[in-house]
């Protein structure tokens, strides 16, 4: 090979030819480029010289030529170049320009069989030996490579098999860099997907730009899920994921949290303390997966099933301590109450401990905990056993019950009925059912609360039938919040019988201007009314 040959290839664009001559010249140069690459590789593989540069220098030369003239190559010629380079790439990592060329090949033809055949050895070598912090271009190429594998038939399983092949046959993985590199590729890809504001497009695509964003996410989530299956990889994976390195948009995406739940399940239920404690926040005041997957969090998609499993593991191991239980008695109390209503033993055990150790100081909350425990057979047995040790607890419900009560989010009509069916609620004045799943059917239970003054039904499925019923039986209501409910003029007109009503929130309901005027005329005590985002606004 002479320097004139290289210069001649780089200066193709300087020759002015007619259209037919350009086509012939381009074909000739493509053949020349492939021949040149093959000659370089043949020389490197057959020379008796023993030096790293024997493999690396030809790769650098071809890489520079591809970077400057790669667009002139057709698909077949590009594949021939890749086939020719493959013997050298098994002994040396590709430079940045060649990685960019590989990425373009992955994105342009992800279903091409050669992508998997030729790139897999390159990727395996890079994942084992390279530090992606120093070589970000290699991380991007592997990101595109995984997405290309996902485009094949049964793509997710192809990705999973690739990850399993990186673990190795031994019981303990021999390559400590593999795990961190695979995780960094997935995290970088996820941030890019969510920052690019993707849109759902067709699945029958020949290039990766047409893949729906959930399908793009799925292959990287499959990588994390496969990693979590290996017991020897799980401790390191748990440590890497404990700071919650995912974008905020991902944590509020139900598809993402639902797909990630299998990874968190394996970490949160692992028998080793140094693994399952990683679901807690990395420091005080920092939320962990234990909080994110609680029923109180908007991203929860399983009604707290996973959260209950994590709670059971934490309480049975090393976290039956006041510091941890104080967290349960704070922001996560609603989640504990909800699961206890549904006869979850670990949640009932936690509530009993909150009472026994006097962690919850509010009398209303303590009464609510006691009432919740007594609403199920197992909870009642646990509460009676507790009362036998703590005699002062017997007095909790001998004073007419709590004055204030907030039902946990995601509660249903059955949960409310179960709670109100035991214990005394004659003193209950304030009840919040906001952001729960209650419907008009819960009105049958609400009308049994004669002292009720404040009722919050914000963002529930409550409708006209329930509104008519409470208007007839709760004449002492003074504050009613119906924001974002299903009520219409038909039900709202019944509110005219609530002559004690002082504050009314009808924000984002089907209220008309005519009904609004009627309410103002027939409710003399009404001082505040919110009608934003209605037809009367």
Automatic annotation (TrEMBL):
Q: Which Gene3D superfamilies match?
A: Ribonuclease Inhibitor (3.80.10.10)
User: Per its UniProt entry, which superkingdom is the organism in?
Assistant: Eukaryota
Q: Which InterPro entries match?
A: CMIP, LRR_dom_sf
**How is this protein named in the record?**
C-Maf-inducing protein
Recite the lineage of the species. Answer: Eukaryota, Metazoa, Ecdysozoa, Arthropoda, Hexapoda
């Amino acid at each position: 090979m002479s320097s004139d040959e290289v210069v001649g290839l780089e200066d193709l664009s300087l020759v002015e030819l007619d259209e037919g001559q350009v086509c012939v010249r381009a074909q000739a140069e493509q053949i020349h480029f492939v021949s040149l690459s093959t000659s370089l590789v043949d020389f490197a593989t057959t020379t008796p010289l023993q030096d790293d540069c024997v493999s690396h220098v030809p790769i650098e030369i071809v890489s520079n030529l591809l970077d400057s003239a790669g667009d002139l190559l057709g698909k077949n010629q590009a594949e021939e170049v890749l086939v020719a380079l493959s013997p050298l790439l098994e002994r040396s990592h590709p430079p940045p320009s060649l990685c960019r060329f590989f990425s373009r090949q992955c994105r342009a033809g992800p279903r091409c069989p050669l992508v998997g055949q030729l790139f897999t050895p390159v990727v395996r070598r890079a994942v084992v030996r390279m530090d992606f912090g120093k070589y970000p271009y290699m991380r991007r190429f592997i990101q595109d490579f995984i997405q290309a594998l996902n485009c094949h038939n049964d793509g997710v399983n192809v990705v999973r098999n690739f990850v399993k092949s990186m673990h190795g046959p031994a019981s303990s993985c021999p390559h400590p860099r593999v795990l961190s590199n695979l995780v960094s590729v997935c995290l970088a890809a996820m941030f890019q997907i969510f920052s690019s504001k993707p849109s759902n497009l067709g699945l029958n695509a020949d290039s990766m730009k047409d893949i729906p964003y959930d399908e793009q996410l799925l292959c990287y989530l499959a990588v994390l899920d496969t990693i979590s299956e290996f017991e020897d990889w799980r401790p390191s994976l748990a440590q890497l994921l404990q700071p919650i390195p995912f974008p905020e948009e991902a944590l509020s995406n139900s598809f993402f949290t639902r797909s990630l739940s299998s990874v968190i399940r394996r970490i949160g239920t692992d028998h080793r303390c140094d693994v399952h404690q990683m679901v807690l926040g990395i420091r005080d005041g920092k939320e962990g997966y234990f909080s994110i997957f609680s029923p109180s969090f908007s991203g929860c998609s399983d009604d707290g099933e996973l959260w209950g499993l994590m709670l059971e593991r934490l309480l049975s191991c090393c976290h039956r301590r006041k510091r941890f239980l104080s967290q349960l008695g704070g922001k996560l109390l609603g989640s504990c109450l909800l699961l206890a209503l549904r006869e979850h033993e670990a949640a009932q055990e936690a509530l009993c401990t909150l009472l026994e150790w006097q962690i919850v100081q509010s009398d209303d909350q303590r009464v609510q905990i006691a009432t919740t425990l007594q609403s199920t057979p197992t909870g009642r047995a646990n509460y009676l056993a507790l009362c036998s040790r703590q005699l002062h607890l017997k007095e909790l419900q001998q004073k007419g019950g709590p004055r204030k009560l907030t039902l946990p989010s995601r509660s249903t009509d059955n949960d409310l009925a179960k709670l109100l069916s035991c214990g005394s609620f004659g003193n209950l004045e304030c009840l919040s059912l906001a952001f729960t799943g209650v419907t008009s059917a819960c009105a049958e239970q609400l009308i049994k609360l004669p002292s009720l003054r404040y009722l919050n039904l914000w963002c529930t499925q409550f409708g006209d039938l329930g509104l008519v019923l409470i208007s007839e039986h709760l004449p002492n209501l003074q504050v009613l919040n119906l924001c974002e409910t299903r009520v219409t003029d038909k039900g709202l007109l019944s509110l005219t019988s609530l002559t004690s009503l002082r504050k009314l929130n009808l924000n984002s309901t089907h209220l008309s201007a005519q009904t609004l005027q009627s309410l103002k005329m027939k409710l003399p005590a009404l001082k505040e009314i919110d009608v934003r985002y209605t037809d009367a606004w």
